[in-house]
Design brief:
It is a single chain. The protein has helices at about 1-30, 35-45, 270-295, 305-325, 330-350, 355-375, 385-400, 405-410; strands spanning about 50, 55-70, 75-85, 90-100, 105, 110, 110-125, 130-140, 145-155, 155, 160-165, 165-175, 180-190, 190-195, 210-220, 230, 235-240, 245-255, 260. By secondary structure, the protein is an alpha+beta fold.
Length: about 425
Amino acid sequence: MLKRILAIFAIFVCTAIAWLILGSTIFYRTYNAQSGLSGRVASTWGEQQSQAPPSISREWHEERNVQVEEEGKKITRKESVLRSEPILLDASRVAATFHIDYRQKGLLWFSTYKVDFDGAYSFQNPTSHQEAFVFQLPFPAQQAAYDNVQLFLAEKPLALTFSGSQAVARTRMAPGAKSVLRATYRSQGLDNWRYTFSRDNNQGGKEISQVRDFHLLVKTDFSGFDFPDNSLSPSEKRQTSAGWDLEWNYQNLVSGFDIALRMPQKLQPGPLAGRISYFAPVSLFFFFFLVFILSTLRGKNLHPMNYFFLASAFFAFHLLLAYLADHISIHAAFAVSSIVSIVLVVSYLRLVVDLRFALFDAGLTQLIYLVLFSYAFFFEGFTGLAVTIGAILTLFVVMQMTGRIRWEEKLTLPQPRKAGSLA
């Protein structure tokens, strides 16, 4: 009996090592390709976006005397110099509407989204004469596509030019005139969206900015979003029939933080399959333990080779899950892998023992400790609790079943009869 137990333990250890290799392979496939896959998604869909408010400035030409040297003589010449001065925003009314649209590459899901942006910015000509004004709307990302980009002044469209990563418009305004600059566009992004107040300083960092009379309304058709660290939380949140309405309201904000929204993340097939593979020895331990107990109680001891094939059927579940999740949804891959593994075990044990043992003893045990324990990984944060409860219930059931068993009788092999002895 001791040799049989040692042989079963050796099979268990070898299978655990195989699962360790499989799990490491899955994580390598997932994270080694992640940066490349992310770049491919960004190249076809768009990257993370960080929208800044438009820059408004007034421009004028100023004449100044400049000394130049001609033919060895210094002469004074008047030169016209273009000067500009930034104009502070009096109020900001910004709206952004988001639609989530996931993309899968390999063993990873990427949270891609569509955004409709609409921002209205109030300002004033601070001078007592007509001035030329320049409006510059920075785009939130260089690697992205923008549709229907428009700038309006007092609801009248402005002629646009595109310079670098911004849209530029020019117009003239009457002395002391107040107006509203409105910017609209549609775009697509990846994972995160930001509205930033701060500007880059000369040292490569961000400056603390002041914002007056600011209101941002974000509408989503999804839940499960998050707010990254070092970002401003919304002032108000309201759940709607489609998703959420999030509002940020500030009268006079001084901050170096941005407003940021992290899109909801789908269950990642690669990391999930890797974690299930690393956990697999626990499932196999419970399965071997119960099969050994039940078969011993019924007087149907299994040979170590039988345990080897059972371990192989368990390993087939994780191997199939790891490579099937590339092609179909993780839930469908899990269901198919579970069915295949259970069919392997039941169809095998009906030949080794009998159909009743295969279905009700081994099959039910495999359903609990392979399928249900593995499915607990779909509920992040509850996996450890589910396994702990399952282990305690297993211990209770086995203790009740075996409390009256005399193990020295069950585990002692019958002694062979001597030749010539009487029956």
